[in-house]
Amino acid sequence: MSLLSLLIALAAERALSAKVWRFNFYYQHYLDFFSKNFTAKQGTAASTAFIIVPVTATFIMLELIDSSFLQLLISTLVLIVCFGCTTTRNSYKAYLHSAFRGEETTTEMHHQQLLSDKNLPDMGFGQALIWLNYRYYIAIMLYFIVFGAAGALFYRLLTTVIEHKKAKCMAAANKVEQASAEENITDEVHESNVTPDFSKGCQNHHDVLFWLDWLPVRIASFGYMFVGHFSKALPVWLESLFDGKKPTHQVLIDVAEKSEDIMVNEDDCTAEPCLLVRLAKRNVLLVLAVISILTLAGLLN
């Protein structure tokens, strides 16, 4: 049933463009509800409950339902909502349109806006798209196959919490900068660039996401070798295989770039993103094909 849900969700995700099919629509309503009904808005307990409650509710609901058809329907609906991100897709289109018109300043503005909105460190536009393709498709597919709809919801909810934290931190940092005060909050803004210390465990959402991404990133990057240049990317993949200090996004990006021949005109800022997006789409299809084969072989339920 997981395979059928994936096939339906991937086919329907782009066709269903109404806001009721977008994750942020439900996230904002849930955030408003949580803020109004729970006084403990700060601290580890509140932030943990914010994520665990809907995930647990989804898991229990699916466990209590006896009908296989209803389980398939609900899981597919959850997966459709969790898949994709219209903001990223719109940024990509706007970036290409401004680049084709020769508007360099506007093109760079779309680039920096995407990095800011998604809480990403400084990287190229094509590199950002590679990482976000993993975050909004491949990672959700893998967590859905292993942990079901609750797993996909948990991953997407955690990444969305981190993205919204970024926006709040940036707004606060701007206010502090305007007041010419000490910018202690800047450390929190760039928190996602720091690799967690394993000995200290998970101290925040970024640490949790780092360890959640550790294995799936290496699985996804392994796929890039098969849809690209295997021999060129293999040494990079092996070098990063057991590296617990290298940022997960850097592992994926390094392998992806080695898997594709990026020999383009330096003045053409659209060539690299387009090449990497096509590579990412091939990788999504490869992951789906492998899941299909394992399901048909009886190794996945």
UniProtKB/TrEMBL annotation:
GO terms classed as biological process: response to antibiotic
Keywords for this protein: Membrane, Transmembrane, Transmembrane helix
Keyword check for Transmembrane helix: yes
GO cellular component: plasma membrane
Pfam families for the chain: AmpE
TM annotation in the entry: 41-62, 69-89, 136-158, 283-300
InterPro entries, per the entry: AmpE, Beta-lactamase_Reg
The name this protein goes by in its record: Signaling modulator of AmpD, AmpE
Organism: Colwellia psychrerythraea (Vibrio psychroerythus)
